[in-house]
Specification:
Helix content of chain A is about 75%, strand content about 5%. Chain A is an all-alpha fold and about 290 residues long. Chain B has one domain (about 5-350): ABC transporter involved in vitamin B12 uptake, BtuC (Orthogonal Bundle), CATH 1.10.3470. A two-stranded antiparallel sheet of chain B has the order 1-2. The termini of chain B are close together. Classes of the chains: A mainly alpha (about 290), B mainly alpha (about 350).
Chain lengths: ~290, ~350
């Protein structure tokens, strides 16, 4: 029984970090109708940036986010400017999948050239130590990572619901032509949203790199999980992404601890297939007509 | 038949002759190896285009069927009494059949969704296949399976593979061409242009899509079997390769999505390039960067692909100005490539 609860707790803690990364993905989709396949490799890129800062400049992992987050924000803006904006108008979403997939391959190639294919992991005192609480072992990195993810998501929510810019984002999300008509610069909102959606991978990448050994190839595994999460939650729904992330990671961690880690990932994708068979628009998806 | 009506069959016959003569002219194993891979990819992209190009659904998980074919071949080949000669090629149709059978449940699930959700679910299902192959005992797990090397002489070692792959390619092209000209193909094109309207006009949308999906999986499964025999080993990450999905999509887009000849052109131009880059830069993995950049350039600058662009140009030149579709119209949903197909047909039926 303890193993089961341990799995559930781990699922909630890691799920929060996945929720943050998935929130970026779903926000981008909601505002721009773009699916950013490169999100996974951006997470890996962020992990490598944290790695370089920690290994060569001795910057603490959590402090390093203050540097990596703006860097990834700028990268997001650059990718939007260079590629996303220039997509042909017909069937933009599908084309965006192909283009961002290509971006992901380029970034993976660059990372491979620089760092090689050997696995690395991030280090800090909180990576190896655990809190012993009520009979459960909670690694500090899980607790801190979860706390940071919750803070950042709260910040995104505050931005979305309390600021003027957030209102522009929500307006663009609901109805782009109407938002344009009332004077919102929809293109600028889209660019900044893309930047923000990519910037959250900085935090996610650091926690990912500290909890998992990674190499440039790890992006595929990540993006398939993140996509499963956002599709399961319903594309464009932030709340859906959070619920889906936490429940999926709970299922995965429970399966990993009571059955076998080998099959936990299979359960992950199988759950997605089952849910989509029953509910093609995802758990919190908007009606199918809007999603087209 | 008019003289113009003979140009196209003549060109096809010439191309076929060139393909048949190739291994005799360039007997260097490096070239024939690249040629075998090129044929495998041309087959795969043609088959993929037979579903994606005509229906407008873009699956990025057909590597699942490539891997299924490869593993079917490798698992059966583990039984030693089958020998290791030409007879092994008899397993290729079986591998295609298994891939087709596997495609039925995959299609049933994936085709419940549309557009981008469809793309994403095919990617997810693909990763499911990769994981299962890595975890199962029968597939040898992450250490993969070995296939016994064939017994024929080493000097012309590649040639049997080459001709089997060529035969497979001819089959795939014939299937694609037949679909394109059939009532079934028209139904697919109708789905691509407006699925709701196609349904309203009496097209059995679900059945047509699923049939096309399964048909597209079969040659890819067979290509996977050729790959397994040719390479001699099957690893989960090589036969279930996300780059395979992207490569065949890129080839189809590059040549012209939804045309019969475009994927062939894309395959014959890009696969040797990829092989060359892999040979030359495998140490630094520069080929990933170069390949990704080519993809970006193709999608952004040439979204219509080569064949439709050239067809439009020819149409414009033949019929004066203003009748061809404007350049830059996207391949999916636009009528540019549909018209290119009509041009291609009018060449053979005067």
């Amino acid at each position: 029984m303890t193993i089961l609860y341990q799995g559930l707790i781990d699922g909630v803690l890691t799920g929060a970090v996945y929720a943050l990364m998935a929130a970026g993905l779903t926000l981008i989709f909601g505002v721009m109708d773009i699916i950013n396949i490169a999100q996974g490799v951006f997470v890996v890129l962020a992990a490598y940036l944290s790695y370089v800062l920690a290994a060569h400049f001795g910057v603490d992992l959590f402090v390093g986010i203050l540097i990596t987050m703006p860097a990834l924000f700028l990268l997001g803006i650059a990718v939007d400017w260079a590629f996303i904006r220039r997509l042909p108008a017909t069937d933009r979403t599908t084309m965006s999948i192909l283009v961002t997939y290509a971006v992901a391959i380029v970034v993976e190639g660059v990372l491979t050239v620089i760092f090689g294919v050997n696995y690395v992991q991030l280090h800090g005192w909180y990576v190896t130590k655990s809190i012993h609480l009520l009979g459960f072992y909670l690694p500090y990195i899980y607790v801190f990572g979860c706390g940071m993810a919750v803070l950042l998501m709260a910040a995104i929510y505050l931005m979305l619901y309390q600021t003027r810019f957030g209102r522009s984002i929500r307006a663009s999300l609901q109805n782009r032509p109407a938002a344009r008509l009332v004077g919102i610069n929809v293109d600028r909102v889209a660019t900044l949203t893309f930047g923000i959606g990519v910037a959250v991978t900085a935090a996610g990448g650091m926690v990912f790199g500290a909890t998992t050994a990674f190499n440039p190839n790890s992006g595929y595994d990540l993006i398939s999980r993140l996509l499963s999460i956002v599709i399961l939650g319903g594309l464009g729904s932030m709340a859906g992404a959070m619920v889906a992330a936490i429940s999926m990671l709970m299922v995965e961690d429970v399966v990993a601890s009571v059955w076998s880690p080998l099959w936990s990932e299979v359960v992950f994708f199988a759950a997605l297939v089952v849910v989509l068979t029953l509910r093609p628009q995802g758990l919190f998806g908007r009606s199918f007509s809007r999603a087209q | 038949m008019s003289r113009r009506g003979l140009i196209k069959p003549g060109l096809i016959a010439l191309a076929l002759l060139a393909f048949v003569l190739f291994p005799f002219v360039f007997s260097n194993p490096t070239y024939t190896t690249i040629a075998v891979f090129t044929l495998i990819y041309m087959t795969s992209t043609t088959a993929w285009n037979g579903f994606a190009g005509y229906s407008g659904y873009i699956p990025l998980g057909h590597a699942a069927f490539f891997g299924t074919g490869a593993y079917t071949f490798a698992v059966i080949a583990q039984h030693d009494h089958l020998g290791a000669g030409y007879g092994m090629f008899g397993l290729i149709p079986l591998s295609g059949l298994v891939a087709g059978l596997v495609a039925i449940p995959v299609g049933l699930v994936a085709l419940r969704t549309r557009r981008h959700t469809f793309v994403v679910i095919t990617i997810a299902i693909f990763f499911l296949f990769q994981l299962v192959a890595t975890n199962l005992g029968i597939t040898g797990g992450s250490s993969g399976l070995q296939v016994a090397s064939p017994t024929w002489p080493g000097a012309t070692y590649n040639d049997p593979f080459y001709f089997v792959a060529l035969g497979l390619l001819i089959l795939a092209v014939a299937a694609s061409w037949t679909i394109r000209r059939s009532r079934f193909g028209l139904q697919l094109l109708a789905i691509r242009d407006d699925e709701a309207r196609a349904r309203g006009l009496g097209v059995r949308v679900g059945r047509v899509k699923l049939t096309a999906f399964v048909i597209s999986a079969i040659p890819i499964g067979m290509a996977g079997a050729v790959y397994a025999y040719f390479v001699g080993q099957v690893f989960p990450q090589f036969v279930f390769d996300p780059l395979f999905d992207l490569s065949i999509a890129l080839m189809a887009f590059f040549g012209g999505l939804g045309t019969v000849w475009g994927p062939l052109l894309g395959g014959i131009l890009l696969e040797p390039l990829q092989q060359y880059l892999t040979f030359s830069y495998s140490v630094g993995d520069l080929y990933l960067i170069i390949y990704g950049v080519i993809f970006l350039v193709v999608i952004l600058l040439l979204p219509l692909g080569i064949v439709p662009s050239v067809s439009n140009l020819l149409t414009r030149r033949r019929s004066g100005r203003g009748r061809a579709s404007p350049p830059g119209m996207a391949a999916i949903g636009g009528d540019g490539d549909a018209r290119a197909g009509l041009v291609a047909q009018s060449g053979t039926t005067p």
